[in-house]
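Let's do one together. I've listed all components of the complex below, 227 residues spread over two lines.
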Amino acid sequence: GAVVSQHPSRVICKSGTSVKIECRSLDFQATTMFWYRQFPKQSLMLMATSNEGSKATYEQGVEKDKFLINHASLTLSTLTVTSAHPEDSSFYICSASPTGGPYEQYFGPGTRLTVT
Amino acid sequence: TQLLEQSPQFLSIQEGENLTVYCNSSSVFSSLQWYRQEPGEGPVLLVTVVTGGEVKKLKRLTFQFGDARKDSSLHITAAQPGDTGLYLCAGDPSGGYALNFGKGTSLLVTP
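Okay, and this is what the predicted structure of the assembly comes out as:
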């Protein structure tokens, strides 16, 4: 149980284009989902907290107009990187917490984004 | 400011050795989670510790939560190459959903 999927697993795009990453909880409902960014050999950096049916809460320093988050249902959240630049290249990971607790997060397998 | 400090940052040992990884904070946590992450993959939840002084065992892995709920440790007995990975501790001092992650301990176990 507690499986989270991400799609795509890898994506290469050109500068200036937008990329959408999907995060799905497959066998549980998640009122809250999270988006992280991870640079090589570093820990996870929380970008935003996504709540179903409401606006996402972004961490300080994360541009909400650049990283658009939509949490349309209890099993799906999407992250769209708009007008991507090479510095946006990174490993993006989502996680989901089961509705009603416990306060544990189950992570997706991650998406490797490369912007050329 | 890093809420959770992990040590050591890097650890390279030979198969069969024992090791301990530490996760320390000045904040009190209602719970702490330990994750293992392999390169190119998402973190996998290993255990959640909730009660101060709690000890949980998962095969060769032993997790302990400090009495004051400010620190935790992970002890691996007879390490195997399959234990190689990044070990992360995480928790939310407010007891909510959002987790703060330590910087992780990168473990390499060589045959």
